[in-house]
């Protein structure tokens, strides 16, 4: 990871990639992208909800997933595509829809700076959501809006100022949600309770824990901020935790439709578990029974093969 502060306008490199590639959103791993990433511009306009956001799957018509969300690249992808279309056509219907979407994100943000997965939702959907880089991707977009960068040069000063305030609040939330263990700053959970700010569970196999994957892109985002004592301490604490949590001497392989962990002392290249137990810092694995296990082989095959339990996310 870069140690110098970089321009806020720069996006992040894709996870598990080779040479650095400048992007805008952070890549989402093992998740189906929202409808707005591929829908036509006319379809995007038709599916903007009255609150200004978009649902993940345009075919949903009831329940939580019929609400506006930032899950799986929803809403911020539509905003980006609309801004690009306005820059190309100068048709104000596209800029108006983009502005409405940006205002939705500002309204979605909690007073503490966090963003829920789904707007005005219940259950785990209302948690502050770092999972799949949802909140970080929103902050990246709002930072570009705040600075009128790229396709957002049409944004007026009032909305730019509000977006800057939202980014500042988001950074404050990131700093407050970083988990401290035995007096040391560590990493973040996939989601955090919107009131207590503590790591929270989501789906039954996603228990409160520290996550190596999403914490990487939180750190990358913090490195785009003007440094101060709190930000510098947060970055150092997380990087120290990455180093302490790396795993060597194993290979993770796909074999005969399964995923297996093979002990191999010759493997010196580190990898990381997706989740670590808070306190012990042991890698953990959870199946659909919701019970924490310490070996991948101890959970059912469907979960072993259906989730990214290991990766090299912090390697750079």
Automatic annotation (TrEMBL):
The keyword Signal applies. InterPro entries: Pectate_lyase. Residues 1-22 form the signal peptide. It comes from the Bacteria. Pfam families: Pec_lyase. The keyword Signal applies. GO terms for molecular function: lyase activity. Keywords: Lyase, Signal. This is Pectate lyase.
């Amino acid at each position: 990871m870069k140690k110098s502060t970089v321009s806020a306008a720069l996006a992040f490199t894709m996870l598990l990639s080779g040479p650095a590639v400048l992007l805008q959103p952070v890549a989402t791993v093992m998740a189906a992208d929202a409808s707005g990433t591929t829908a036509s511009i006319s379809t995007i306009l038709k599916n903007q909800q009255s609150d200004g956001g978009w649902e993940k799957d345009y075919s949903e018509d009831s329940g939580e997933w019929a609400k506006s969300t930032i899950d799986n690249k929803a809403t911020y992808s539509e905003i980006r595509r609309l801004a690009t279309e306005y820059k190309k056509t100068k048709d104000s219907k596209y800029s108006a829809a983009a502005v409405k979407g940006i205002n939705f994100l500002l309204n979605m943000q909690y007073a503490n700076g966090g963003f829920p997965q789904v707007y005005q939702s219940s259950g785990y959907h209302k948690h502050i959501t770092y999972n799949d880089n949802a909140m970080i991707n929103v902050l990246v977009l709002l930072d570009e809006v705040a600075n009128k960068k790229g396709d957002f040069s049409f944004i007026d000063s009032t909305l730019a100022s509000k977006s800057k305030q939202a980014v500042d609040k988001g950074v404050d939330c990131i700093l407050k949600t970083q988990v401290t263990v035995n007096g040391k700053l560590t990493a973040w959970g996939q989601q955090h309770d919107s009131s207590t700010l503590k790591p929270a569970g989501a789906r039954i196999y996603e228990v409160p824990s520290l996550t190596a994957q999403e914490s990487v892109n939180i750190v990358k985002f913090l490195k785009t901020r003007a440094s101060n004592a709190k930000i510098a301490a947060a970055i150092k604490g997380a990087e120290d935790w990455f180093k302490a949590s790396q795993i060597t001497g194993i290979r993770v392989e796909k074999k005969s439709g399964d995923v297996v962990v093979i002990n191999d002392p010759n493997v010196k290249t580190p990898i990381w578990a997706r989740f670590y137990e808070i306190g012990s810092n042991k890698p953990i694995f959870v199946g659909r029974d919701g019970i924490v296990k310490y070996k991948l082989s101890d959970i059912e095959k469907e979960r072993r093969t259906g989730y990214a339990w290991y990766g090299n996310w912090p390697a750079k």
